[in-house]
Amino acid sequence: MGKIAIVTDSVSDIPDDIVKLYDIYVVPLTVDIDGISYKDGVDIKKDEFYDLINSGKMPNTSQVSPIEFMDVFSDLLKSYDEIICILMSSKLSGTYQSALLAKDNLKNQNITVIDSKNFSLGEGFIVIEAGKMACNGNTSDEIIARVTNMIPKISYTMIFDSLDYLYKGGRLKKTQAILGSILNIKPILVNNDGELEIKDKVRGRKNAIKWIINYMRETKVDFTKKEIGLLHTDREEFMLEIENAIRNEFGATNFIRNRAGCTVGVHAGPSAVGIFFEFN
């Protein structure tokens, strides 16, 4: 049985300890600030990045290039027999297309590139499952089948104070972004087949938490048996309030928590919180 490398992009927001535990290879996107380019999580760390955007800087991101993927794939194929590369939604970035071009240029049939149709920890959950399976000795066919089945079952919900960053980054239309500019209105976005969709809008934190609890209750998922992903950009205290409410309501104990990386922070801004889990 051949060794399988699991590859993803830095948008997946997988905690560093889990990346190391399952030998996941993370390819960084590029963040551009004031004419200087940084590799997400390599050349610039989260604290420094959020200090910059809180001071009013408006960064941009660049997708991973085909040449970068070719270099990563070629290097990994020296030590691994196969590569499974799981990337952020192709509807939100050209990174997936770059990886396909790299695979085509290398003319190697042992590289599989998968569109997660997700973003941030929604993508991360899928990658983590693939990493676990690779470490447990599953075949590439088994991993690909599980991942393919998992993709449409990931619930991705994010709460924002403002949608300005998503609008400026080209991920939302101006008419949608206006919803986030009304005082204390918190837009709630969900994943709709790889695109971000405004699901609702609520006033204040307490109502946002109530919305999340009601949404989770309606799914009929047994959260005592599920991992729940929690993410924040620069609002850890709000994330922990949500975690506490979920614990109290559902008896959930298994959480993966992280602060969003720079790429997600560029588009989400410093005031977003996300909740992720897999449906039954």
Automatic annotation (TrEMBL):
GO terms for molecular function: lipid binding. PROSITE patterns: DEGV. Keywords: Lipid-binding. InterPro entries: DegV, DegV_C, DegV_domain_contain. It comes from the Bacteria. NCBIfam families: DegV. This is DegV family protein. The lineage of its organism: Bacteria, Bacillati, Bacillota, Clostridia, Thermoanaerobacterales.
